[in-house]
Amino acid sequence: MKKIWEETKAAIKLSIPTHCFRMWIDPLKMVKCNEYSIVLSSHNFFSKKRVLDNYGALIESELKRVTGRKYRLLIEVSKTKVHSKPKEDNNFQLELPNINVCPHSGRLMRKDFTFDHFVVGGNNDFAYSASLSLASRNIAHQNSLFLLSKTGLGKSHLSQAIGNYILSEYPSERVYYMTADDFSNEMIHAFRHDSINKFKGKYRNQCDVLLLEDVHYLSGKERTQIELALTLDTLFESGKKIIFSSCCLPAEIPKINDKLRSRFSCSLISNIDPPDFRTRVKILQKKAMHNGYKLQEDVIHYLASELTEDVRQLESGLIGVTAKSSLLGAPIDLMLAESVVKNIVRHRKNITIDAIKKLVCKYYSISINDIVSSSRKQSIVRPRQIAIYLSRRYTDSPLQTIGRSFNRYHATALHSIGAVERGLKGNGPMQKQVEFLCSKLESGKF
Fold this sequence. Notes:
Helices cover 53% and strands 10% of the residues. It has helices at residues 2-13, 18-25, 45-67, 125-135, 155-169, 180-192, 196-205, 222-237, 258-265, 277-291, 297-306, 311-328, 334-341, 353-364, 368-371, 378-394, 399-405, 410-423, 429-443, and strands at 29-33, 37-42, 72-77, 105-106, 144-148, 175-179, 209-213, 241-246, 268-271.
């Protein structure tokens, strides 16, 4: 019978992508078979669920073609230990205790950011597979991953899921989770307090897994880039795990030295796109179930059809309808959902780059010629940067198109976006100006 399984695997290999076969099908082992069913063994609960959900029908079909008879597919989780840590028979990643998880260094990780709570769809299938594979050590020679997506699409969830999984399965591993800004600030503090050698030793000799978020914020920070590149060299050479996340491809991050850009680029780059309707429905259903909310199918489908930007917008809609229902004592129906959604949805179809230019120019009392000129006056540069930021936020135009609209290269456009994002972190004048312009765009009054 094992020969039949090998023939079946060979047939499946020809019909699915190579990385999917290597990740999900090849590790499956034949356990037993009778005249009605075939039992395969998987190394953990994640793999079992993934195979049954996505490849179960294909496996049964190929088995029938190879053997000439129909078998029911069953998968059991192997009880064989894959490392020295004692484990229970149910080898799936439970939600961690009722505290946020503290890695050895850096920020706390959210206890609910695990693989089991991540909703997989066509938009993030590869990123999920790559993250789980790296965390569970399924690909021996791949130690570095670069998660790429816009804000709110799940790259932080996957990054922390990797950290949570490793801390759960390999508790002796030293996991460091932080943003690029955290690394930079810690390095500056070390220089100021004459403890740079301690800082270097911490990351180069005492770190097994580095989770580094938002690496695009390293743009222009030359001293930090040099130190990080040297640290990454040491970690790579030692076979340590490194996970980056960013809103931009390595090649699109401006003012990054070649050595660091090369380190980012040699990682496995995994893109996460906005979820499609089916995936948005699954996200809402899972989050509603996790939080104990009860929503009718028509309400979930309405929210999924209207809230199309990212996962955070879906969460906002879900929280909005449940909170309004609770406060008003009203049932969660389509009328209530519509009243919540109209305050969330942005009117993107009416917002164009030209409309944004006109609004910004009117607000700052400059001309269209000024905003697309080569002028470096602060009175022109700041409005131009804000207009580029708003164009990226409110239109679906690629960075190159936005840059050309302002007579700028895409790298300059990216720098402008980063400058505004940094300005929004404080509670200064820029934040109030951007909030005002956003309210104008979102209300359609432009």
